[in-house]
């Protein structure tokens, strides 16, 4: 294996499994997140052809003769950056309706095709969608897809869960966790030195504004959009206050909403919705905003080392952004979980609530190694509200040891919980 770009993704096995069942598999995610590499890895495992709409000749044919481009072909057809020619989806629908054999097409796109206004064909009933997130810590370390959340749902108590994860994590793994929260998981950037990474993100942002944005929408006030983008990234891991964001970006509320929608369509941010555990209590109703790539949040804050992050009060938000995205990247592949956060009007909160059926596992991310009883207050409050639905509470922290707090709450090093240790 030579270089980050050849790292196999946890999603690869999932995509190959889907290709045995579904006629079309669509892999979406931010530009440069590794979709093309994943598609080529899939072709290494099965016969087929590769087409990219970044090739002018292929793009011209996709626009002028979409039916001819996707005409019957033996094996798998991979089409990269399919959002550039939305009419291809109509042509693909006709092909797979005539021949419903599984594994006909693997499509990739740098935009959420289900929410793009220019896309009128969703391939409903014919396709399954897989979101590819930045490289996880376990992928970067060549480790298998983590099973820690699975264990949290099935362990009989916190003591048993503690025995199923790595204890006594090496101190250098704590430093690496902090570095991962700064460097993110974009394949071409995550192993660059900080000064080179800054240049890469400057270029990435320009490309997004000058090219990708024009494909998604007619944005004439690019400086306004750029300003709101930076301000949104700076708010990663915080509640979204749309009015405050609009005021700070000096745009109208309707414009701010439109720009936020575009950032979601392009997989630059995600909104995590609140979990309502008890309808008789007053809960926060605003969603929580996350940068999809934690390093983009660090770039927006101009933070390039952990001491600066701590000094500026950014360490907690960056570590939380990193950990939440990492969890969603590998646990989300199974399709079993639903994700939210919990916060009451009185100030009790939990960073991530994971539901599987009636059962709930709650995760708090703490950017410190030393925990106090107060560190568990949010988990204990949620447990009281949920009663028997509460399966396990986990504090993912920067310490080196597993600490069992009580029967259903356990503190686990971030490296262990994310499957990197």
What does this structure look like?
The chain is an alpha/beta fold. The protein has helices spanning 10-19, 35-45, 56-64, 66-69, 88-98, 137-140, 148-154, 158-163, 171-183, 194-216, 222-234, 242-249, 253-265, 294-301, 306-311, 315-331, 377-386, 414-417; strands at residues 24-28, 48-52, 76-80, 105-109, 127-131, 238-239, 269-272, 288-291, 338-343, 349-356, 359-365, 390-397, 403-406, 409-413. It folds into two domains: 4-131, Rossmann fold; 137-417, no CATH class. Strands 9-10-11-12-14-13 form a six-stranded mixed beta sheet, sandwiched between helices. β3, α5 and β4 form a beta-alpha-beta unit. The longest helix has 23 residues, at 194-216. The two termini are 20 Å apart.
Notable traits:
5-stranded parallel β-sheet, 18 helices, 421 residues, 2 domains, single chain, globular, alpha/beta
Which descriptor suits the 3D outline?
globular
Helix content: 40-55%
Low-confidence stretches: none
**Total beta-strand segments:** 14
Summarize the biggest pleated sheet.
Answer: 6 strands, mixed
Q: What's the average pLDDT? A: 91
Indicate the radius of gyration in whole angstroms: 22 Å
State the helix count.
18
Assembly category:
single chain
Write out the strand line-up for the largest beta sheet, numbering strands in chain order: 9-10-11-12-14-13
> Could you say which structural class the secondary elements and strand pairing correspond to?
alpha/beta
């Amino acid at each position: 294996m030579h270089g980050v770009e050849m790292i196999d993704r946890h999603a690869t096995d999932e995509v190959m499994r889907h290709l045995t069942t579904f006629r079309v598999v669509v892999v979406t995610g931010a530009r440069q997140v590794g979709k093309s590499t994943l598609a080529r890895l899939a072709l290494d495992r099965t016969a087929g052809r590769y087409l990219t709409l970044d090739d002018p000749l292929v793009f011209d044919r996709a626009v002028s003769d979409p039916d001819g481009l996707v005409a019957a072909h033996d094996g798998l057809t991979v089409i990269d950056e399919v959002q550039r020619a939305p009419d291809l989806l109509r042509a693909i629908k006709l092909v797979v309706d005539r021949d419903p054999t599984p594994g006909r097409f693997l499509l990739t796109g740098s935009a959420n095709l289900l929410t793009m206004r220019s896309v009128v064909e969703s391939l409903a009933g014919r396709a399954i969608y897989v979101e590819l997130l930045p490289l996880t810590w376990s992928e970067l370390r060549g480790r298998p897809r983590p099973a820690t959340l699975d264990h949290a749902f099935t362990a009989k108590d916190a003591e048993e869960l503690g025995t199923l994860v790595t204890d006594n994590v090496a101190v250098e793994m704590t430093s690496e966790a902090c570095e991962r929260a700064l460097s993110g998981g974009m394949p071409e950037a995550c192993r660059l030195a900080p000064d080179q990474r800054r240049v890469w993100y400057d270029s990435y942002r320009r490309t997004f504004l000058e090219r990708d944005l024009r494909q998604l929408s007619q944005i004439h006030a690019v400086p306004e959009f750029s300003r709101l983008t930076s301000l949104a990234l700076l708010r990663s891991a915080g509640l979204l206050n749309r009015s405050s964001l609009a005021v700070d970006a000096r745009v109208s509320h309707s414009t701010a909403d439109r720009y936020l929608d575009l950032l979601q369509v392009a997989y630059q941010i995600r909104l995590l919705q609140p979990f309502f555990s008890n309808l008789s209590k007053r809960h926060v109703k605003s969603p929580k905003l996350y940068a999809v790539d934690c390093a983009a949040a660090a770039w927006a804050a101009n933070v390039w080392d952990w001491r600066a992050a701590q000094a500026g009060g950014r360490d907690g938000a960056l570590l939380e952004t990193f950990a939440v995205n990492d969890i969603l990247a590998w646990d989300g592949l199974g399709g079993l979980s639903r994700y939210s956060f919990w916060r009451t009007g009185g100030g009790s909160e939990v960073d991530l609530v994971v539901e599987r059926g009636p059962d709930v596992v709650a995760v708090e991310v703490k950017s410190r190694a030393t925990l106090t009883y107060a560190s568990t207050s949010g988990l204990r409050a949620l447990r009281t509200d949920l009663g028997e639905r509460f399966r396990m509470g986990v504090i993912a922290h920067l310490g080196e040891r597993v600490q069992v707090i009580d029967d259903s709450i356990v503190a686990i090093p971030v490296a262990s919980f994310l499957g990197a240790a």
